[in-house]
Structures are given as C-alpha cells and as structure tokens.
Amino acid sequence: MNKKNLLFFIGLIGVVFACHKSLTHSPIAEKFVLNYEVNRFEKDIQALEKADAAIGLDKLQGQILFYGSSSIRFWKTLKEDFAPLPVINHGFGGSTFPEMTYYAERMVFPYKPKILVLYCENDLFSGKEKSPEQVFDAFAELATLIQNRLPKTKVYYISMKPSISRKDKWPVTTHADALIQAYIKKHKNFSYVDIRPSMYRPNGTVNGEYFIQDSLHMTPKGYAQWTKVLRPVLLKNYK
C-alpha cells in the first residue's frame, strides 16, 4: 500500500470512529445520591416482562413505546386512544429518571421502538429534595443513553403536568422542564411536547376535572386532553 492510499485508509478509519463516538453528558449540578433503592419497582418490571413474553418480543419490536411513571402506568386506554398505531405501555410504579435509566436495558432497548414517549415528574418529590439542575442531569443521563443505544429512534418528552397537589412546586418543575427543553432543542430526534396548556381552563386555572381525588393522577378527561395533543404528532411521525 503506497503512502497516499495509507493516509486515505487512516482517514477513513477516523471518520468511522467519529461517526460511532458515544455521546456523554457533563453534569451541571452536584451529584444526587439516591436515598431509595433503584430497584424498588422490580416486581412491576417482572410483571411487564411476563406480559410481554406471552406476546413475544419479536411482535413488540418497532412500535411506539410509552415509558415513565404512574401517569403512563395508569393510562388504561392507551391502545384505544392511539389506534391504529401500535403502542406499548411500560409505565411503572412512581418511577424517577434514575429508575428509568436503570431499567432501560430491559424495558426499552430490546423493543427497538420507532418512537419512544417519555414522562416523569417524580424526581422532585421522591426522597430528599433535589434541585431542577439535578433533575435535568438525571434526565440527560437517560437521554444520552437512549441516543447511544437507539440513534434512529424518535423521542418525545412530555412536559410535567401541573398537578394540583404539587402546586407549591410548579415554579421548580417549570425550571426543570425549561432546562430539559433547551437540551432537546440541541439534540437530533428529540422533541418536546408541552401538554400544560391543554390542562388549563380559559380563565387560567387548572381544570380540576382532569384529576382524580388525590389531585395528582388523572381522570379519563385528563388523558383525553393528552391524547388530543399527542395523537396528531405520533400519527404524523410514525413511519
């Protein structure tokens, strides 16, 4: 091999490695040490795995996967709301971003979803207090992992809903979402879906009819609002 061809070959190798370079995230806040067991919802995960095994993993690949906390878990009409699109509900417990990251190897990556829908609002409320920046770091760790493992998957992040029972934390959740939205704008295949406006009355107050008695989880009317926002987006982009 002459010198010219050797240089070309070395350059080509460099391009290949550059294209496959893993993304990383540099934290912007002090590391948050979990004060709960990251596998505390193991039984929930095992139940999901058992249900999926009965269907067959090969039949579930390439669909739209909803992944997140109880607002996803309790979405009982998910399949009907998005028909004829093929959707999977992998909501579990009252999960946080670290738990979603921990279980992604079992609940996300084997399914190779065309579209991944993320929702979580518990990081600010589970265990000791966190800052919006710490919540953002936890999201970015998950997002980075997804981009490295599923580079072709379209990811939609649903903004944190204005839960009435957590009204005192609205400014903090808004700040965390703003950091997440800024991140999403810079990353390919990620989109931010703001569902908050759909949950307000014309007079500017949150519609209490969208929440059950605990003022945290949603009624069918609340999920209908989410469907109105999300369905057109997913119908347009599931190809």
Short description:
The protein is α/β, with parallel strands linked by helices and about 240 residues long. Helices cover about 45% and strands about 10% of the residues.
Describe the protein.
With 239 residues, this protein is an alpha/beta fold. A 5-stranded parallel β-sheet has the order 2-1-3-4-5, with helices on both faces. It has 9 helices and 5 strands, in the order αααβααβαβαβαβα. Helices cover 45% and strands 10% of the residues. The longest helix has 18 residues, at 132-149.
SS-based class:
alpha/beta
| Main sheet characteristics | 5 strands, parallel
Say how many strands there are.
5
What global shape is seen? globular
| Average of pLDDT | 91
Tally of DSSP helical segments: 9
Poorly predicted residue ranges: 5-19
Widest sheet, order of strands: 2-1-3-4-5
Distance between the termini: 45 Å
How would you classify the quaternary structure?
A: single chain
* Rg (C-alpha, Å): 20 Å
Strand percentage lies at 5-15%
Helicity, as a percent range:
40-55%
How do the SSEs run, as a string of H and E?
HHHEHHEHEHEHEH
